[in-house]
Design a protein that fits this description.
CATH class: Mainly Beta
Number of helices: 3
Order of helices and strands: EHEEEEHEEH
Strand content: over 45%
CATH architecture: Beta Barrel
Radius of gyration: 15 Å
Strand order of the largest sheet: 1-5-4-3-2-6-7
Structural class: alpha+beta
Distance between the termini: 27 Å
Number of strands: 7
CATH topology: Hypothetical Protein Pfu-838710-001
Length: about 130
């Protein structure tokens, strides 16, 4: 198990942030078109991410720690095989799907991820992700 911290912010224009990242000499990895499928678990979130850059199965739990979210990661399998994905889908009930576009930047050693959910997915995405 590993732990990290996540800070989320809502911005009105990604252009300002992208300009600032450029000034900081960030490395732009690219635009990842992602489909996140969430599955029912007793604790935390179990997610299959299928993207053009990132592909993974992860099981994690977030708790609030001041202004940040502390993330405890129980499973993190990069580039899962078709068999691993099939096992996940047959052993866990699907509870939601989110489709989004993610721009990935790195300012060593921290990565910045700017997400844009497709409009029809926003409300469902918030519900599937356990957000208010």
């Amino acid at each position: 198990m590993y732990k990290d911290y996540t800070i989320k912010a809502k911005i009105s224009s990604g252009v300002v942030l992208e300009n600032k990242l450029s000034q900081l000499n960030s490395r732009f990895l690219g635009i990842d078109i992602q489909t996140d499928t969430y599955f029912e678990v007793d604790r935390g979130k179990l997610k299959l991410r299928e993207g053009t850059i990132e592909n993974l199965i992860t099981h994690y739990e977030r708790t609030h720690d001041g202004g940040a979210e502390k993330t405890n990661v129980y499973r993190y399998d990069l580039n899962p095989t078709a068999d691993e994905i099939e096992i996940l889908k047959t052993t866990h009930r699907q509870i939601g799907v989110i489709k989004k576009e993610r721009k990935i930047y790195f300012v060593d050693p921290i990565d910045r991820r700017n997400d844009h959910c497709l409009p029809a997915d926003v409300v469902y995405a918030r519900q599937a992700a356990g957000l208010r």
